[in-house]
Amino acid sequence: MYFSAFGKENRGIIPTFNFQSNILSGGVLDNVAILQAKDALEQVLQRVELETQTPTFQAFAADDTPNSKTISAARVIRRMGFGVNEGTTCGHIAAQILLGYYAFTENLNYVPSSKRSNMLHCLNNFSTKPLLANSLMDELKKYFKQIPGTGGTLPWQEAAGINDYLKADKARRELMVSAKYNFFVPRLETVKASTKSIWDSIMRDRPVIVHTNLDLMSFIPKVKNLPKDGYGQHVMVAYGYKNLDSILNYIVHTGWWIDGKPSVDIEISGTWLVGSTLIEKGPAGPIAKGKSINLKDYVNTASGETWTSSDTSVATVKDGKVTATGTGTVTITHTSKGETTKFSFKCVTPVTKVKIIKPAKE
Length: 362
Hints:
Layout: E1 2-3, H1 18-24, H2 31-51, E2 68-70, H3 74-78, H4 90-105, H5 113-124, H6 136-140, H7 155-167, H8 170-173, E3 177-184, H9 191-194, H10 196-203, E4 208-212, H11 214-217, E5 235-243, E6 248-253, E7 257-258, E8 261-262, E9 266-269, E10 273-281, E11 287-288, E12 292-294, E13 306-309, E14 315-318, E15 321-324, E16 328-336, E17 339-348
Parallel strand pairs: 11-17
Antiparallel strand pairs: 1-3, 2-5, 3-10, 4-5, 4-10, 5-6, 6-9, 7-8, 12-15, 13-16, 14-15, 16-17
């Protein structure tokens, strides 16, 4: 079970509270804001208590699902180059590792060409030193907003920072990917359900940024064995899991250098997690005639922007919404404040009927 911090996907279980809006608006995280957050989460816990008396999530792993798994390209995560943690930049490091992973497994355009050589060197010729110069972290600092007064980043700030980074470059915009976040209610008896989005991503070979926060967890009942080794207030990259009897452990890259080596293959309990940030692909494959997709998540929108279609007999576009009107290939162009982004699609006739031909009798 998980819910959006802004209530868009919370299914009615969490009230709006000023804790997050205060942070996003640049306000000070004071004691009143913290109490508001605690009161809101306590209300959630009361609802969770009622909902979990009759569990709706009986078995986390199906019979054909392995009890432990790492993504198929886990080596890329383990050997990815990354910068030095400056004390409050663990979110930047996690984002760099995640973006680097996709650069070397999906498309190099996830990372600027000027930043690839160092990361690739570390990937292919394992380095025992962190990247002190020419690091992607320097680029990410332009887009990440940290918590005023304390530093660090929360899941929604991670997602916003990654999205701003992706939208800042034409080649990255045309990747058609965006970052999403989840905020969890950590409860021992529901941890497998609450972190299911992380498990789902790992099953699809997509690593996830995960967040722990002892300050938010310490007052929540039934969360035991809280970490005391530095993982309790941290941002890491999960790339595997182990399905235990009562809880789910995640295998993470901590984003730390220990004894000259990256700290990887560390297991952390799912009960420690309060949120996650992941990168998801946009619409894949052709668009069926009569169907629509929306491209606004992948561009910088602004007043005066324009959307155009290269062939309106194949697809039309209005305010970022593309609707297939025929068949063929079409290019959708977005222009805003001097930035031009092009998206190409194939539109097809949908299959409405399948005829099964029985083989002739011998």
